[in-house]
Amino acid sequence: MEAEALLQSLTRVVTALDGTGIRFAVAGGLAVYARGGPPSDHDVDLFLKPGDADRAAEVLTAAGLRRVHPPEDWLTKVYDGDILVDLIHGPNHRPVTDELLDRAALMRIGSTAAPVVAGTDLLVDKLLVLSAHRCDFAPLLRIARDLREQVDWTDVAVQVSASPYARAFLALLGDLAVIDPKEALVPEPPQYLVARLSRALAEDPRTAELGVHVTVRGEHVHLTGEVTCPARKEEVDAVVGEYLTGELVHNDVRVADVREPASAEEIGR
Amino acid sequence: MRIAAVGDVHLGEDSRGLLRPALEHLAGTADVLLLAGDLTRHGTVEEARVVADELAGLGVPIAAVLGNHDHHSDSGEMISNLLRETGVDVLEGEAVRYDLPDGSLGVAGVKGFGGGFAGKCASRFGEREMKDFVEHTMASADSLRKALQTLDTDVVVALTHYAPIPGTLHGEPPEIHPFLGSYLLCEPIDEVGADLALHGHAHFGCEQGVTPGGVRVRNVAQPVIRKAYALYELHPAELSARR
Fold this sequence. Notes:
The complex is a heterodimer.
Chain A: H1 3-17, E1 24-27, H2 28-34, E2 44-48, H3 53-62, E3 66-68, E4 75-80, E5 83-88, H4 98-103, E6 105-109, E7 112-116, H5 119-128, H6 137-147, H7 153-159, H8 164-175, H9 190-203, E8 212-217, E9 220-227, H10 230-241, E10 248-251, E11 254-255, E12 265-267
Parallel strand pairs in A: 2-5, 9-10, 9-11
Antiparallel strand pairs in A: 1-2, 3-4, 4-5, 6-7, 8-9
Chain B: E1 2-6, H1 20-23, H2 26-29, E2 32-36, H3 45-55, E3 62-65, H4 76-85, E4 88-90, E5 94-100, E6 103-110, E7 116-117, E8 120-121, H5 128-149, E9 155-160, H6 186-192, E10 196-199, E11 208-210, E12 216-219, H7 222-225, E13 230-234, H8 236-242
């Protein structure tokens, strides 16, 4: 199937839906193409909210497309000649929401312009499709390379964290230096990070410090307390560094003052 | 009578010479040095040797208790023996008497342990591990009581690593108070009416507190006092008159 024919069908669909008030965004291969990825020759994928799918199908039928009723409960299909148009309202069992459509950006695709799913949402969708039977990383690698600057990889990592296939792919992207490996690490909830750092500082023989407090505020790790000498303060940095994934460390740990006291406290009756 | 006291110096093998400059003139400043535990970092004999060298020949009597760090390598006994060879009176359920120019000083010492404070403390109930935890504190408090009872000196000081009251823990998260001390350690201090109770362990706590019975408590952990040692001046005649 020719890419040109696919773009013509997209133009017909977008024109038909324009002015109907039905919110949609272009997804799948055409969204990848719109965002600078390889051309698509598969089908037209549109994301729309579950409540809008039937009406969209009716509008498109009225515009001369042919509706079919697939057995799947997460999409509706219409054909423009031989070209399949998927009207998807529940990709990967996650309903399309206004928020997802809000994140889409109006972009030029071929001779038309339409909202295109955001880079991050697009990659999440592509990665969640991976399964034991669909595990071809080759086309995904090209897409990841072409779209990498448009993707919040940490967000992707969080959203796909339940999929071993997606995690493997993100690790591959890190090893290939397509992305910074730290970008694709799922950030730990702060309370676990505090607990891990505190235990590491106590149990790591380099520090053996129970007297350093760890506070995590977003991307910032604050260390307070007191150690015996400057070298110990540096060791605290080294141990903490091994557990972090890009957080900024503020080492406010004091070095002990071991001067003689200036005065005595009188303990009277 | 001037008592110098510090805890939690956490000396490592790399700490040689760190404390010595400030201790060099101790004999002219204080009559005695009391150490409130955590003298070492990992509780190794090598670290204890650094401690012994820092303390050797100061010209004042020295009494010490060990802290949790000093037990980390299961070498508490060897550390105690090594320090005793240097002339340090390491106290664990023992008391020592010093006849100083201004009067006699008795120091009773134990490491102590956790468990928490009245109303918010662990009970000897349930799992064996829980009972072991509480029983360790009970035994420690008991040996502190026995040691204190042997003393018949002008001034009586209780020396522990763990805190006997929550008052000197201000600054520490309340959730960890049960790991910082126990009210069980405080009971014998009040029973004998000690003149001063010294402890360490709580790096984020504060220096001054008082027991329910009115005994002054001082947290001398080095991060709290922020100097080589704290100095306390007591007047034996006044104190013994009170008893």
